[in-house]
Specification:
Blueprint: E1 4-5, H1 15-20, E2 27-28, H2 64-67, H3 81-90, H4 92-96, H5 101-105, H6 109-125, H7 139-162, H8 165-174, H9 179-197, E3 201-203, H10 219-242, H11 249-265, H12 272-305, H13 310-332, H14 340-370, H15 401-430, H16 432-445, E4 453-455, H17 458-486, H18 492-512, H19 518-532, H20 540-575
Antiparallel strand pairs: 1-2, 3-4
Length: about 575
Amino acid sequence: MTSSYFLSSTKNTTPEAFLFRTSHIYLPKHRPFVKDFPILKPQQSIFKSSLSLLTLGNNGFQRPFAALSSFAEADGEEVIKSNEHNHHQGNANSDDELPGMAQAFHISSRTASAISVCIALAALTFPLFMSSLGQGLAFKTKVLSYATLLFGFYMAWNIGANDVANAMGTSVGSGALSLRQAVVTAAVLEFSGALLMGTHVTSTMQKGILVANVFQGKDTLLFAGLLSSLAAAGTWLQVASYYGWPVSTTHCIVGSMVGFGLVYGGAGAVFWSSLARVTLSWVISPLVGAIVSFLVYKCIRRFVYSAPNPGQAAAAAAPIAVFLGVTGISFAAFPLSKTRLVAFAQALACGTAGAVLVYRIIRKQLGHLLAKPAKADPEPKPEAHNLKNIGFLSDIAGPTGTQLEIVYGVFGYMQVLSACFMSFAHGGNDVSNAIGPLAAALSILQGGMSTAEIVIPNDVLAWGGFGIVAGLTIWGYRVIATIGKKITELTPTRGFAAEFAAASVVLGASKLGLPISATHTLVGAVMGVGFARGLNSVRAETVREIVTSWAVTIPAGATFAVIYTWILTKFLSYLL
């Protein structure tokens, strides 16, 4: 198993700089300065809080985010061309060799195996104590209920392994959070979101894809189709997670339902207009996400990086971003009143409160540094004369030294906040992809109505949340590596631009009823940030793999669902 080290800047070679560069970004097979600095050895890796903003005092700045990592020099946000070339070319193969769980979290193989075994035992044991298993039912029905809960867990596990990267991938890639911190944070928030915000009512016909009347009176077939859809979607998600492909869990379950409905119910069993809307989101989601993130990042470079004092500009921009984000989220996703005008006023109040809170935190932590004037460079850099003058979209020379670290500190803090919210919201939203069919299958099995709305018990919501956390813990690092590292290099400003753009697009599209995928939007947003730095900053090979996986998702889910349904119907006819 290959040891892991961390890239460092070649300009700032003080021991302190190396110390801070070892704590966050995981990059395999890079071993600079190991002989001279034993602290870079994996056995002595340091785990420390990434939110250095929270530990700032009046004695100086604490170099947040791994001393700007390898992506930006200590004297400006400029990538070392030779390092970037080596990272793209010489290490392209090593990026494809994703690390194991032990390497990813810097734990022993024995500890990683113990964690996996404990999760497996819990998954097999907990259903026996759930009230949803059914009380007073025949033994065969209880066995099928137990199997149904395991099918749902399998789907939830794969949602955690693949989809949670939507929230945490950019934070890990930029260095705002270490992988271990991201997993622990996401685990708590995903479970809380699934339990507290997960939908309590669902329909047997998930996502409006299947026509309910076609399967009326065919409860056994519908039960087999629901279980097969869970297994099929989980299978394709597992394949995608193994290769590090970020795919849409909604598209997986939709493809599975379409395959089952088309083969066992005929063409009339599928709402083709709904399927067309889902397919359209393949184009709309990444395109809109890329455009918005491109503009957001260009705004940061234009109005923050080019300001006389970039640190003060970043501190001023943060409350504005919080105000817009909290106001939009409060009004669109969590309206406090049914009256639109009152709800909007309350959302403005929430946004103002959030902006004031962030402003005070930043001023308290960085006030002594923000008061200092920015130091001008003694000589302009040669590259500055070659910048293309095309107005708003022209390139901007970045801030330098402490100013750059202040900018990264502010935007890193903002990025972590947005990642936490996205993780909580994801747990409440996407857990339905697993527990919706699960609850419907349990209702059919235990004598409920096959076409009525199904009430989801709290223990099933918690079960889905546990599955998401389990998948995130064991395999989540794979897709996080793709979104955070393999599409383009990320820093706190780039990561914030991608997350803020993706969240804004998803929120707006959901409010307007437009077909959109959160996964596709975030991937497009990361690409947009890369395009803002130049076409060469985006890895075309990775993008091709991701787009191909998107195109294959629905056909693959449909194929697996047909095969699994055939097997299950044969088994159920023998068992029942």
